[in-house]
Specification:
The chain is built from 6 helices and 5 strands. The chain has 160 residues and is an alpha+beta fold.
């Protein structure tokens, strides 16, 4: 039997049940951006690292407004969400040199939303053949850097 140790997940597992509110709203209301992995705060939306990324650099663009449907999002916030998506594409191309970029939303539990009550846009760099055997066979992701390192790199790039 092989073991993959992921001690950094303990913080999530041990506190997941304690949160009674929306994780996005709680992160946005806090002033601890590094702890909450917020890399950028805009007027209508903020950018936060995915705590369980598919690839290094996986971020989510989240409106401050707690909304469960895209059609409820004010136009100004929707525009900022796309502008920030464009900006993240540029950051990824500079930092990670990906072969492509995934951009998408899962709206509602049936659509696969992990946090169904608060819409958010996923933006992540992708490389040809980045689905290796560990992901396909073992349902395990192998990431080349920690969330702390990703936060630092992206935060610095967004401040330029």
């Amino acid at each position: 039997m092989d073991y993959l140790w992921t001690p950094w997940r303990y913080a999530y597992v041990s506190t997941a049940e304690k949160s009674t509110g929306c994780v996005f709203c709680e992160a946005a209301a806090s002033n601890e951006d590094q702890k909450n992995h917020i890399v950028y705060r805009g007027r209508q939306c903020f950018i936060i690292l995915n705590r369980f990324p598919y690839t290094a650099g996986h971020v989510m663009i989240v409106p401050y407004a707690h909304l469960d449907e895209l059609c409820k999002l004010p136009t100004e916030a929707a525009h900022e969400m796309i502008e920030l998506s464009q900006r993240m594409e540029g950051v990824f191309r500079d930092l990670y040199h990906p072969d492509g970029v995934n951009l998408g939303m899962n709206i509602g539990k049936a659509a696969g939303a992990g946090i169904a009550g608060h819409i958010h846009m996923h933006v992540l760099p992708r490389w040809v053949a980045d689905s290796n055997f560990a992901t396909v066979v073992c349902e395990t992701r192998v990431l080349p850097e920690t969330l702390a390192e990703t936060w630092k790199k992206i935060r610095e790039a967004l401040q330029r």
